[in-house]
Write a structure and sequence with these properties.
The structure holds 2 protein chains of 2 kinds. Chain A is mostly helical. Chain A folds into 2 domains: about 70 residues; about 220 residues, Orthogonal Bundle (MetI-like fold), CATH 1.10.3720.10. Chain A has 15 helices and 2 strands. Chain A is globular, with a radius of gyration of 28 Å. Chain B has a domain of about 200 residues: Orthogonal Bundle (MetI-like fold), CATH 1.10.3720.10. In chain B, the strands form 3 sheets. Chain B has a 4-stranded antiparallel beta sheet. The longest helix of chain B has about 35 residues. The radius of gyration of chain B is 29 Å and the shape is globular. Chain B starts with a helix and ends in a 5-residue tail after the last helix. Classes of the chains: A mainly alpha, B alpha+beta. Chains A and B meet through helix 3, helix 8, helix 9, helix 13 and helix 14 of A and helix 2, helix 4, helix 5, helix 11 and helix 12 of B.
Chain lengths: ~375, ~400
């Protein structure tokens, strides 16, 4: 009997399952979906093969100068190969370190390696005493990095002025400001905004809303032009430092709103329980509230950081040599003019890979937190 | 009576340990610190400015500026005009970019956001690629890409890309015909306004009738008829009082028509494509936030695809979408200040750039610029809050 039925069960028609079924369901389900599919395929046909041809097949990867990428025959007719990646190769050192002297670049590399090792320690699961690593990163590392990068004559390290700092290294430096300085400022501002003291609350609200209401460019102008006016005469403030202060204040205002979200999301019971065991304000915040609130808003912090990292390109306006400006400068070099696409594609890829992986990370944390919340 | 005597009076609190006292002391300290440091800053600024011979006050606004501005779609500016005029030009250019950018970004953002949820696999992947690519690359880089790489390979004016002999695209910008009103256009305008009033009355009536009787009125087609028919009749009775001023190639450049400079085109492209990628994500999450039961219920009562989208999905999704949409509009407006990087004469470029360099009055000029952006931000968020209120659930 059972066997009989089994034999009678018909398989679904072959066009409804497997690859063909998938195609029918996802690409050709209705007449307009079919139209859209063909339109999409046409656009892909228009875009992908020429790009592939340009970026890979016809590209120039090595050589000595621009004549391998672009040359003239005896009739002065211009010939052009595909993408001139040689241009990136030639300028790579400049894109990475700016005007930092070649023989001292090991100091940047060392600072970066220390940072990478310390940060990767944070990601090892079940490592004990992680907070020491955190303290090292936030409090001690900036000092070490400063001495490594800037140099110190008494320690026998040659001084390198900040006007020589540049490239990807400067971009990383400015970006890390977003975390190292802006986050603590944001925490303080968020606490101020949630404070019971009206004066503190109103001042924090004004501060946050003011910096969030104006564009970063005006903040940078402000720090570049007005800052020197605000300090007593005779004190010279470094251009980079001015910019860092501007970025910190700007980023801090945005971080404050993210942290405030975390503070508001915590159940009231947490505050009451902390007060019930006799904790004062600061102990309650530092030991009970903040650790939980910050954990909730890690995705928000990472997203704000991504925004800040992209915004560091604006230091272009006050002529700090970040990655974008080094690429831009190389484009106007008479020996290597005429390869803007290569330069922009290269820069875009760098920014994209950093921002995209960070955003994936924040998404993963968000999902993990959601699961933990549901448990 | 006995009991009353037993009531224990609260212990006399030490006034210095009471919460109230501490709160007052903390607040006073904060106040003194803030006021003190602001005073210190102002004092320093005053001494520094005096030492450097920088004048102060806002009288410079009425002085004549000594510079030209390249792109002036609205009002004139020559070196004999005042700094205040330059300020107005910059402000109008900023508003122009912000309004156009918001318009395009909204359209593209909604299309891409809905496209990402399409049941067509290819369209969904394509929109996903768009969003991930554009929002992870800095806006300034995209702006440079459009301005310095893409718009630079356009042909010269002589070999412009030509669309129907009316629209031209070349190195000097985008040219299109300019409509000019002639005698009699006022009547057309008047009739148009009357038709719109009639449509509003009809709409209110139809809504009331539907609420009372449940009968629907073909409001869309009837209002199209009410608007188009009288306007067209008056338009032709007055011998078509609109002429198009065509852009014409004269020498090396086009004359006449409306010109969008390459700076404006690049800025619009970058701003609207970049912001659209964020708006698309807001739209997507707004649509995903709708309870699945809503759509199933709509299907069950026999609604078609388009009415479901128009009557069920979008009104509910809008409530989720509007708050983040507001902040995207604000971001676009603030990001329009990137114009300074490609020398589009917006507020920052004209006023906080050129005028600041010439007068040296950094404090006043930056204060005005910041105040303008702050008030633009506040205006947009007030408008959107008002719109948000009208879209809210009525019963809650």
């Amino acid at each position: 009997m059972n066997n009989q039925i089994k034999q009678d069960v018909k398989k679904p028609p072959v066009i409804n399952i497997g690859f063909i079924g998938w195609l029918r369901q996802n690409l050709f389900s209705t007449w307009y979906n079919t139209t859209l599919t063909f339109l999409g395929l046409y656009i892909i046909y228009l875009a992908i093969p020429p790009f592939f041809q340009w970026a890979i097949l016809d590209a120039v990867w090595s050589g000595d100068d621009r004549t391998v990428c672009e040359w003239y025959d005896e009739n002065k007719v211009k010939y052009k190969a595909g993408a001139c990646w040689l241009y990136i190769k030639v300028w790579f050192n400049f894109f990475t370190y700016g005007f930092y002297p070649d023989e001292l670049q090991w100091r940047i590399n060392l600072a970066f390696i220390i940072l990478a090792v310390a940060t990767s320690l944070l990601f090892i699961p079940n490592l004990k005493n992680k907070h020491y690593v955190g303290i090292f990163l936030f409090a001690i590392y900036p000092i070490i990095a400063f001495f490594l990068l800037s140099g110190n004559e008494t320690l026998g390290m040659k001084h390198v002025g900040t006007h020589k700092w540049g490239g990807l290294f400067l971009t990383f430096l400015l970006g890390s400001i977003g975390i190292v300085f802006a986050l603590p400022l944001g925490i303080v501002l968020a606490l101020g905004r949630r404070s019971k003291l009206p004066v503190v609350r109103i001042l924090s609200v004004m501060f946050i809303e003011f910096w969030r209401g104006i564009p970063l460019i005006t903040v940078l102008f402000f720090s570049a032009v007005m800052f020197p006016l605000f300090v007593p005469q005779g004190i010279e403030i470094d251009n980079l430092l001015r910019c860092i202060v501007g970025l910190t204040v700007f980023g801090g205002a945005y971080m404050a709103e993210v942290v405030r979200g975390g503070l508001q999301a915590l159940p009231k019971g947490q505050y009451e329980a902390a007060q019930a065991v006799g904790f004062g304000y600061w102990r309650m915040m530092a030991l009970i509230i903040m650790p939980q609130a910050l954990r909730i808003v890690i995705p928000g912090i990472v997203n704000t950081f991504i925004g800040l990292f992209k915004d560091t390109t604006l230091v272009f306006i006050i002529s700090l040599m970040d990655l974008l400006l080094t690429v831009f400068t190389s484009m106007s070099n008479p020996d290597w003019m005429g390869f803007p696409f290569e330069g922009y594609v290269f820069t875009a890829l760098i920014y994209f890979s950093i921002c995209f992986s960070l955003s994936r990370y924040s998404l993963r944390v968000e999902k993990k937190l959601m699961v933990a919340h549901q448990k | 009576m006995n009991v009353r005597a037993d009531i224990i009076k609260p212990p006399k609190q030490d006034i210095f340990k009471s919460g109230k006292f501490r709160s007052i002391v903390t607040q006073s300290i904060v106040m003194v610190l803030v006021v003190g440091s602001i005073g210190w800053i102002i004092n320093n600024a005053a001494t520094n400015m005096e030492a450097n011979g920088i004048s102060h006050g806002f009288s410079f606004l009425s002085e004549t500026s000594m510079f030209d501005i390249g792109y002036l779609p609205f009002i004139e500016h020559t070196p004999t005009h005042t700094y205040f005029n330059a300020f107005l030009v910059g402000l109008l250019n900023t508003i122009l970019v912000a309004v156009l950018g918001i318009f395009f970004a909204t359209i593209i953002g909604f299309l891409v956001g809905i496209g990402r949820l399409s049941d067509n696999w290819l369209v969904a992947k394509f929109c996903g690629f768009y969003v991930e690519a554009l929002r992870n690359i800095p806006l300034l880089l995209q702006l440079f890409f459009w301005y310095h790489a893409v718009l630079r390979i356009l042909p010269r004016a002589k070999n412009s890309l030509n669309l129907g002999d009316s629209f031209y695209l070349n190195l000097k910008g985008f040219f299109m015909p300019k409509p000019l009103a002639e005698v009699g256009f006022n009547y057309v305008l008047l009739i148009g306004i009357f038709s719109i009033i009639a449509i509003i009355i009809l709409y209110l009536w139809a809504k009331k009738r539907q609420a009372l009787t449940g009968q629907q009125f073909p409001i869309f087609y009837s209002s199209l008829a009410i608007f188009i028919i009288p306007v067209l009749i008056v338009f032709f009775l007055n011998n078509s009082p609109i002429t198009l001023e065509q852009p014409v190639l004269k020498g090396f450049n086009f004359k006449g028509g409306i010109r969008l400079t390459p700076e404006l085109v690049a800025l619009l492209l970058a701003l609207s494509l970049y912001t659209a990628s964020f708006i698309a994500e807001n739209v997507r999450s707004g649509i995903l936030a709708i309870n699945k039961g809503q759509i199933e219920a709509a299907n069950a009562v026999g609604l078609q695809r388009i009415p479901i989208l128009r009557l069920i999905v979008i009104p509910q999704a809008m409530r989720v979408i509007i708050p983040p949409l507001t902040s995207q509009y604000l971001n676009l407006t603030k990001n329009s200040s990137l114009a300074v990087a490609i020398a589009y004469p917006d507020l920052v470029h004209v006023f906080a750039g050129t005028a600041l360099m010439q007068t040296g009055q950094a404090v006043e000029i930056l204060a005005i610029t910041m105040a303008v952006y702050l008030s633009l931000s506040i205006t947009i968020s007030l408008l959107m809050n008002w719109y948000n209120k009208t879209m809210k659930l009525k019963d809650s």
